[in-house]
């Protein structure tokens, strides 16, 4: 989606503190962190919300990358939380599917 903030970040049109990227996902630090470590993991392909995600393979890959980033890239050995906000009523502010990795306490 051309005007999506997270799509622009993944394409490199808007600067971000990149943590991890591959052909399917892109991870970067949240600009308004809610924890000492707060990283967003997004699919490169635009999907507005978790409720709109109809590809089980994509969802599985996204969760696998969340695990990899938290354990191997961020090294959150003490533990971490993974959060999805879905739609406005669920606190979603940017309508591009994304997982929050929160940790570092």
Kindly list the characteristics that best describe this protein.
2 helices; 105 residues; five-stranded antiparallel β-sheet; HIT family, subunit A; alpha+beta; single chain; globular
Summarize it.
This protein has about 100 residues and is of the alpha+beta class. The protein has 2 helices and 5 strands, in the order αβββαββ.
List the helices and strands and how they pair.
Elements: H1 5-10, E1 18-21, E2 25-29, E3 37-43, H2 56-73, E4 80-83, E5 99-103
Q: What report would you give on this structure?
A:
- With 105 residues, the protein is an alpha+beta fold.
- The protein has a single domain, classed as HIT-like (HIT family, subunit A).
- The chain is built from 2 helices and 5 strands; from the N terminus they run αβββαββ.
- It has helices spanning 5-10, 56-73; strands spanning 18-21, 25-29, 37-43, 80-83, 99-103.
- It has a 5-stranded antiparallel sheet with strand order 1-2-3-5-4, covered by helices on one side.
- A hairpin with a 7-residue loop joins β2 (25-29) and β3 (37-43).
- The longest helix has 18 residues, at 56-73.
- It is globular, with a radius of gyration of 13 Å.
- The N and C termini lie far apart (35 Å).
- 23% of the residues are buried.
- For the report, how would you describe the main beta sheet? 5 strands, antiparallel
CATH superfamily: HIT-like
What would you call the structural class?
A: alpha+beta
The CA-CA distance between the termini, in Å, is 35 Å
- Order of neighbouring strands in the sheet with most strands: 1-2-3-5-4
Q: Rough shape?
A: globular
Order of helices and strands: HEEEHEE
CATH topology: HIT family, subunit A
Query: Quick check: average pLDDT?
Result: 96
Strand segment count: 5
The total number of structural domains is 1
Helix content: 10-25%
- Count of separate DSSP helical elements: 2
Rounded to the nearest angstrom, the radius of gyration is 13 Å
The share of residues in extended strands comes to: 15-25%
> Which CATH architecture would you pick?
2-Layer Sandwich
**Overall CATH class:** Alpha Beta
Q: Which residue ranges are poorly predicted, with pLDDT under 50 across at least 5 consecutive positions?
A: none
